[in-house]
Amino acid sequence: MLDIGSIENSDISLCVLSLPEVLTTGENGEPEIQLPPSISSLATPSTIFLLNKSDLVSSTSSLGWTASLATEEGMPEFMSGFSKLLHERYVSPCFSSTHVNGGTFQFSI
User: Fold this and answer.
1) Which of 66, 78, 95, 106 would disulfide-bridge 54, Cβ 3.0–4.6 Å?
2) pLDDT digits over 3-58, tens only?
3) 3-state DSSP call for residue 89?
4) What is the dihedral angle through the alpha carbons of 75, 81, 82, 84, rounded to the nearest 10 degrees?
5) pLDDT, tens digit, for every residue of 76-96?
6) Could you tell me which residues are beta bridge partners of residue 16?
7) Which pLDDT score is estimated for 42?
8) Cα 63 to Cα 66, 82, 98, distances in angstroms
9) % helix / strand / coil in the chain, to the nearest 5?
10) Is 18 left (phi over 0), alpha (psi -120 to 50) or beta?
């Protein structure tokens, strides 16, 4: 069962959407994303969106992070960008590693 409170109180959330299902054409003729009502109420400024199935639509250049898991197109850019975003938000430049449950995890700075 989905715990809405845990989503609303998270520091960051990742929302993966099927691009063909949320892609619309705006009034200016440009592609736009329309979130389903069940998702839009959960989106916060800290929500990161990955639009999947980009191989099934013709234009994705201005939509943000798009990817196709089937063809792997866009996945390296997403992984690199998401990693960089997490690093910038949550890893202090003063530290090169962190200890979690006795293990050491190294971060490139």
Assistant:
1) 66
2) 666 667 777 888 899 999 988 888 888 888 888 888 888 888 888 889 899 888 87
3) helix
4) 140
5) 999 999 999 888 888 855 554
6) 50
7) 84
8) 7, 15, 34
9) 30, 25, 45
10) beta
Number of Cβ within a 10 Å radius of residue 50: 20
| Cβ(78)–Cβ(50) below 8 Å | yes
Record the tokens describing residue 53, joined without a space: 């199935």
Whether 71 contacts 83, CB under 8 Å: no
Cα–Cα distance measured from residue 29 to residue 70, given in angstroms and rounded to the nearest whole number: 28
pTM for the full predicted model: 0.70
Q: What is the pLDDT of residue 104?
A: 39
Count Cβ neighbours within 10 Å for each residue of 51-68 and write b for 16 or more, e otherwise: bbbbbeeeebeebebbbb
